[in-house]
Specification:
Belongs to the bacterial solute-binding protein ModA family. Keywords: Metal-binding, Molybdenum, Signal. Helix content is 34%, strand content 21%. The protein contains nine helices and eleven strands. The chain is elongated and about 55 Å long. The N terminus is likely disordered.
Length: 263
């Protein structure tokens, strides 16, 4: 078992403020007059929230370009782009949603990047009467409710369901499942004690009160995180700068620190 480390100082304040504001709220950085006209609008999977806030700050410091992030379930964000949302970049936790947007010519395939991979974990609150260290432990009577993201539009929810199906546990546990609209909401349920356990992205576990163990990666399809430029973007030059920055060592170190792996 491992215990998640706490982000220190101002990082904690930023994280909790953003989390309780909820998904699909904008999170940007201070700008001056010279950057007001070139700020980037980015739709990003909820699993990227904490890493992208730090990466966005590093990008601001290097390039002087403000980024306004909006977070949510990858499927819901993809639909926003189909509906004409005025954004520059889209970061998805699922290959399927990105491929759909490329096929429908909403995303420029030439600027598509696979930049990290997500990791699925089984999490439980340290105050639980019994530890939940493996999927089979979810059958215990003490585990009354289990949170996952909604598998209909959230890749980590889809992966969580697949892991339980592979383990032969889905039918037995389905009545215990509580769905969050996103993986960060599923995390909130366990943090507040509303559920006994959760299957989550490692990247959203920020509290030292939450213990977790890794789920065998053969139990679910790879959680490939792609980012691509929206065809109608009016900030293509700056969007390209951010795509390039994501491939630099500084950004990769941040992603690794927040629980992702490299492709």
């Amino acid at each position: 078992m491992r215990k998640a480390s706490v982000l220190a100082g101002i990082g904690v304040v930023i994280i909790f403020t953003l989390l309780w504001m909820g998904d699909l709220k904008a999170g940007g950085f201070l700008s001056d007059e010279k950057t007001e006209d070139n700020k980037l609008q980015v739709l990003a999977a909820s699993s990227l929230r904490f890493a992208f806030e730090e990466i966005g700050e590093a990008f601001w410091e290097k390039e002087g370009i403000e980024i306004v992030f909006q977070y949510g379930a990858s499927g819901n964000l993809a639909q926003q782009i189909v509906n004409g949302a005025p954004v520059d970049l889209y970061a998805s936790a699922d290959r399927h949603f990105m491929e759909r947007l490329v096929k429908e010519e909403h995303i420029n395939e030439e600027n598509l990047r696979l930049f990290c991979k997500g990791i699925l974990v089984l999490a439980f609150h340290q105050d639980n009467s019994e530890p939940v260290e493996k999927l089979e432990d979810l059958i215990k009577p003490s585990v009354q409710r289990i949170s996952i993201a909604n598998p209909e539009h959230a890749p980590y929810g889809k992966a969580a369901k697949a892991a339980l199906e592979t383990a032969g546990l889905w039918q037995e546990l389905e009545e215990k499942i509580v769905y969050g609209s996103t993986v960060t909401q599923a995390m909130q349920y366990i943090e507040t004690g509303n559920v006994s356990a959760a299957i989550l992205a490692k990247s959203v576990i920020y509290s030292e009160k939450i213990n977790f163990s890794y789920i065998d990666q053969s139990y679910y399809r790879p959680l490939d995180h792609f980012i691509g430029m929206v065809e109608r973007s009016e900030q293509q030059k700056n969007a390209q700068k951010f795509l390039s920055f994501l491939q630099q060592e500084e950004a990769e170190k941040i992603l690794l620190r927040h629980g992702f792996s490299m492709p």
